[in-house]
Design goal:
With 53 residues, the protein is mainly α. Helices cover 51% and strands 0% of the residues. It has one helix and no strands. The longest helix is centred in the last third of the chain and has 27 residues.
Amino acid sequence: MPIIVDEVVISVEVTNDASGGSAAPPSSTEDKQSVVNECVERVLDILARKGER
């Protein structure tokens, strides 16, 4: 029995903590962004392949 996904919900929380603590180094932020981009690309590829069936 095939499973059909009608909706994909992606939730992201972005904070800009200006008070206290240490700021994340730019490379860490870039790494996180590249991981998010890779995940989005893979999800879109999977959805495109499932749409071709």
